[in-house]
Amino acid sequence: xxxxxxxxxxxxxxxxxxxxxxxxxxxxxxxxxxxxxxxxxxxxxxxxxxxxxxxxxxxxxxxxxxxxxxxxxxxxxxxxxxxxxxxxxxxxxxxxxxxxxxxxxxxxxxxxxxxxxxxxxxxxxxxxxxxxxxxxxxxxxxxxxxxxxxxxxxxxxxxxxxxxxxxxxxxxxxxxxxxxxxxxxxxxxxxxxxxxxxxxxxxxxxxxxxxxxxxxxxxxxxxxxxxxxxxxxxxxxxxxxxxxxxxxxxxxxxxxxxxxxxxxxxxxxxxxxxxxxxxxxxxxxxxxxxxxxxxxxxxxxxxxxxxxxxxxxxxxxxxxxxxxxxxxxxxxxxxxxxxxxxxxxxxxxxxxxxxxxxxxxxxxxxxxxxxxxxxxxxxxxxxxxxxxxxxxxxxxxxxxxxxxxxxxxxxxxxxxxxxxxxxxxxxxxxxxxxxxxxxxxxxxxxxxxxxxxxxxxxxxxxxxxxxxxxxxxxxxxxxxxxxxxxxxxxxxxxxxxxxxxxxxxxxxxxx
Length: 511
Hints:
CATH superfamily of the largest domain: Metal-dependent hydrolases
Number of domains: 3
């Protein structure tokens, strides 16, 4: 089928004044202005009036957990809970609506409450009426459990268990696994489909699924891959975060799970909010604590070398500055084994990479590493009175997520949300890149768009996508109410609505 779309603003370097284009099947076959469009109107099957919408390439979210994102959309979501009492009231209301069923209550953040005391097991027992309650903190690196979930998971015998019901480390992994096991296969697949349809409705045409043995399960990843094969959904690039030590092990793990790469949430360290990100100096609000080191330089080296030899993309989750040191040293050590050029060709990736400086960014850039970053983290937790300043102090807070310095050092940036840690929100990602909390570290609108389009595809080693061009794939989104500045949409104003999302000529969403 062929379609003429006209009457909009088309963001393309090919024709800076473009207002119209023609799609034939899965390809764009003509780009021009409305005057030129008149000559195509009689030769197409359909004419679409864009009504002034701004058309950009479809967005890519480079870090998502699909089944948990869909589950959050039907959960007792605590993202905007204003106090402990508010959070507990929401859990109680959810439990009353679905008596006897497990309660998923994610994304509480005690640092935003008048009384910054975390939830407790006793409180969850009362609010949930004795039901299984799993309440992960907003960073998903710690959680509080009801006594019913403690009993079901046996986490009180594992490292990371606290008598208050709070869990980190192995106890948290076991609790999350026990909670996931209570979902049926059909429920999980429905959650995945819900998340993918939500992505398309907000202009996201591709997501990178970050799964692994400490995130969800092999069955979860298999369901993600299977659901994504349905027509009319955003594309999925699946990653599996399993540590390997040699080339054969890498090949076997990739083949077993159908993974695009052995990367994603393979944790070198944890998170700043849960004080498990590995730091060079103590946490400002917890003297003597410097977080957790989950992997060594040697383990990073061996994983990257094995993946490189197998022709597989590898990578890690890393946040704290000491954790970033481990990542850089490990990747450089791998280059000493397999050669720097082989490492560059592999385009390995690091997730989050918050505690990096310009020198570290340059070292990673020399080895072709991609930084999969989350601009919403800075938008949510950056600033003089927010979480990062509380945990690290105001001076170290300003060093996090130095996007402008990272780009200037030659490090490729791909934007993602880490949903459900922060919501699926492509436009919010663009805004977070531009409106950085640290002066001088924000990107231009054009750079932000690049990070969520071309760089998002390249972060998955997929070339030639992410631009609107003649002969290119018909993968785009139309934003009603958006404004354009210097050839890119300006994300700093009110969020527009998505009137149309198309991937390879197939309509995923029509508003």
